Structures are given as C-alpha cells and as structure tokens.
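Submission checklist for the structure archive. All mandatory fields must be present; incomplete records are returned to the submitter.

[x] Identifier: ASCH domain-containing protein
[x] Organism: Streptomyces fuscichromogenes
[x] Residue count: 184
[x] Sequence attached
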Amino acid sequence: MAPMICEPYSVRALTLWQPYASAVAALGKDIENRGWSPGNYRGLILVHAGKATDRAALRYVPQDLTLPRSAVVAIARIAGAHTDCAGECSPWADQDSTWHLELSGAVQLPTPVTQVTGRQRIWVPDDALRQRVAAALPPGAACLAAHLRKEPGACTGGAVAYGADSTTPAPAKENAACPCAPTR
C-alpha cells in the first residue's frame, strides 16, 4: 500500500459537475463516483462546481437547489475510497463506477467563491484561492479557516506536525471538534 500524503495544512480540490457539487454541499452526498483511482490522498478538499451540468441528474435534486458554476461551494474530506461495493455503499453510489470516493464532514459555503477555474482529477488549489475560501466560511468553521490560511497553532487537529528530522510526521493532536482533524 502506498504511504498517505502527509504535509502541513494539506488541502486539495475536486471539480464536480452540477448538481453533484451542490449535492455534496447541501444534500449530504457522501460518495463521489470516479473511473480513476484517487491515489493516496485522504484529507480536506475544496468542492468545486465546474462549468458542466448533468441535465439528467437534475430530476433527482430539489428544483430550488442553487447550482453555481465555476465556484467552490463547500469543503469536505476524502475519508477513503473503495472499489468493492457494487454500488451498495450509499444511495449516491453508481454501481458502474470503478471508484467511490468517501466524502465526509461537508461544510457548505454560505456564499460560493466564484470565478474559479477547475481542473481534472484531484488538484492543488493555490494560496489565493485558499484565502478566498477561508474568508467565505461560516463563523462556526474557524478551525477550517485557520487551516486554509496555514496559521500555525490556530488549529489543533488538522495540521500535521513534522518530527525533528523534518520528514517524519509527528502524531497529530486529536480534537473531535476540529473538522480538519486527521482521519484514522
């Protein structure tokens, strides 16, 4: 098994078509279906709504669901990924998809961060985007905002501290209230 990606203040992004991005943000969508392996990344992701819409899927979501495009709509966590459930792990799972990314802890942005260009696969957001998303988080997500801003000591659960040799991660402090606490 490949080692987990372990770095201070790790955040990635994932672009989803609508209505799937808004479903993660507002409807509890806990599986993202993909035909490719997510690799070894487990941790926080910015949920980015791309430009495209799956028109057929619109019949499965409330008509009043807001569907911004080219925008970050939420932050969630990739808690795991699997290939062996035949679509039975969640109502959101597609049995024809090779990989199911397990999403947890979604925090919807009250106002989406717009004018964001997405990418294919899991991608690394730049610091300017991280700052914009941190500023858009709801007041109850102060720890997440600190994590996005890379503020040392402001978040007790999400930042992975490195040992004396600067390459070996030290055990993270556990804090159940912290939404960016490591998944074990």
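[x] Structure attached
Curator remark: The chain has a mean pLDDT of 83. The longest strand covers residues 99-114.
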